[in-house]
Every structure is written in structure tokens, then in C-alpha cells.
Design a protein that fits this description.
- This protein is of the alpha/beta class.
- The protein has helices spanning 14-24, 30-41, 43-48, 51-58, 62-71, 77-86, 95-104, 111-133, 136-147, 161-173, 188-191, 211-222, 260-279; strands at residues 152-155, 178-181, 200-204, 226-231, 244-247, 252-253, 256-257.
- The strands form two sheets. The protein has a five-stranded parallel beta sheet with strand order 2-1-3-4-5, sandwiched between helices.
- Helix 2 crosses helix 5 (62-71).
- The chain is globular.
- The termini are far apart.
């Protein structure tokens, strides 16, 4: 049995490959879909890992990586890796590389300065990456959906709560009716209980996804509300019910992910929705 896509010309750049993976994600066999999710969420690991290490991290057999590569027209896993490596050729140095260079040149800095430099670099990388990958049509669609809603429900818990709480503040100041779902006292479901088909919801969540955000987004969708998802992958559990998806991949410093790009998106949605309503 052949896998759909074998024999086709292999993508020559990462964005083309990524688009192909997204387009075919629903038709991929279970194990290949598992590789696809891992590859898009961890492109640097795929670029520089061995077949054995990537397979172990993705919880599949090394032969599955070969099947995955061949399903997209590559001869083997190493050819697939070349495409993942190509996306890194023009990137800025990581914090680790910069710190290594500082040590090589005998430069010193206070610990706090290094930490600040790491977080600033992560923010810069996140914003630069989003500029290249953002989908203007998806952003416009999100603004249209939100501008046409009676009430905008803002759903984002755990690390995403600063994003939705800012949006609630900004929209309130701009005269846009909204309800912030903060789930205080475990009342998230009750706070979202009045969502209707006349409303819209903004759901914000990043891996590891907050289970209550996922559940509330699904509940809002079942009530007929339009959903705008701000998340880090097309495979995110809040991506599938979304009418508009804004994909944000934040860089991290020592495991702490930047929120710079996500906050910029939140500010954009808040101001653009208010402006669109003013035009109407």
C-alpha cells in the first residue's frame, strides 16, 4: 500500500513543507500525524536531532520518520531534515550561542543583565518570526467576526490569563462589550453560560493547553458562537473549533516563553475591533 503523497515532488523550503503538512494533516495515518504534530511544534529538534532521538521524543519508531519523509516526496529522513535546517540559516543567534560567544571572548556581565538579555532576545525572535509567518487574511477574519458580535467572551486561563485580562481592559475602555472568563471559584462554565449564537469568543491557549480553556471554547462553539483561537499550532485542541485561527509561536528563554507577540496580537484585535465598529 502506498501513502498518499509518495512520488510527489518534495517541498524545497520549510514554509511550503509546513503548508503541505497542514493541508494533509487530517488524512495522515495516526503515527504519521503524531510525527507531524511533533515536527511542527519542535522544528529545531527535528533539524538537529538524530533519527533515533527524534523518534524517541515523538514516541514513534525511526522507521516511521522515514515513512513520514517519503510521504512528502523525500527519499529519507535526512532529506527532510535539510528543509528544517534551511529555516535556521538566516535566524539570529540564540541566547545560548550569544552566551557562549561572550565566554569565548572573555566578556562578563551581571546575572540580571544576562537574564534580561535572554528575555529580550526571545521577544525579538518571536516578533520577527510572526512577521514572516502571519496570515493577514486570518487576522482580518478574526476582526470581522469579533466586530459583528453582540458580546465578546474572552477565554484564557493559566499563562494566557494576562492576555485576555488585558483585552477585557482595553475593550472596556474602547466601548466594546465583553465578558472576561476568569473562572474564579471554579465558575468558568457559569460565566460562559449565557454565550449565544449572536456572540463570539476569543480563546487563547498554548502547549500544555489549559483543559478548562479547551472545554469552554468547545462549549461556546456548541452554543453557536463564533470562535477566534490564538494558539501555537494548527494541531492545538482549540484550533479545530475555530472560525479564525491566529497562530503564534513564541520563543523561550530557559523554558520561560515570551508573551510579546501574543500581547501584540491582543492589542491589535482590541483596537481593530473598536475601529471596525466605529466604521460601521
Amino acid at each position: 500500500m502506498t501513502i498518499d503523497g509518495e512520488g510527489a515532488e518534495a517541498p524545497r523550503d520549510f514554509e511550503t513543507l509546513r503548508a503541505s503538512i497542514v493541508e494533509r494533516r487530517a488524512a495522515l495515518p495516526k503515527r504519521l500525524a503524531q510525527v507531524a504534530i511533533y515536527a511542527l511544534d519542535n522544528p529545531d529538534d527535528v533539524a538537529f536531532g538524530t533519527a533515533a532521538s527524534v523518534a524517541q521524543s515523538a514516541s514513534v519508531q525511526p522507521s516511521t520518520l522515514v515513512r513520514f519523509a517519503q510521504s512528502f516526496g523525500f527519499q529519507g529522513f535526512s532529506d527532510l531534515q535539510d528543509v528544517f535546517r534551511s529555516r535556521l540559516r538566516d535566524r539570529v543567534l540564540t541566547y545560548g550561542e550569544r552566551l557562549s560567544r561572550m565566554r569565548q571572548h572573555g566578556l562578563t556581565a551581571s546575572r540580571s543583565s544576562l537574564v534580561l538579555d535572554g528575555f529580550l532576545e526571545a521577544a525579538e525572535q518571536s516578533i520577527a518570526g510572526f512577521r514572516k509567518s502571519m496570515d493577514p487574511q486570518a487576522l482580518d477574519r478574526a476582526v470581522d467576526l469579533l466586530a459583528g458580535a453582540d458580546t465578546i467572551y474572552l477565554i484564557g486561563l493559566r499563562r494566557s490569563f494576562p492576555i485576555t485580562s488585558y483585552m477585557s481592559y482595553a475593550m472596556g475602555k474602547l466601548g466594546v462589550r465583553n465578558i472576561l472568563i476568569d473562572a474564579v471559584a471554579g465558575m468558568g462554565a457559569e460565566q460562559a453560560g449565557f454565550i449565544s449564537a449572536r456572540d463570539a469568543a476569543v480563546a487563547v491557549s498554548f502547549t500544555p493547553y489549559a483543559s478548562e480553556t479547551v472545554a469552554l471554547a468547545g462549549s461556546a462553539r456548541s452554543r453557536g458562537a463564533r470562535i477566534v483561537a490564538v494558539t501555537d499550532s494548527v494541531f492545538s485542541p482549540i484550533a479545530s473549533p475555530a472560525d479564525a485561527l491566529i497562530e503564534v509561536s513564541e520563543a523561550n528563554f530557559e523554558g520561560f516563553r515570551s508573551m510579546a507577540t501574543t500581547m501584540a496580537v491582543a492589542m491589535t484585535l482590541s483596537v481593530a475591533v473598536a475601529a471596525r465598529r466605529g466604521e460601521n
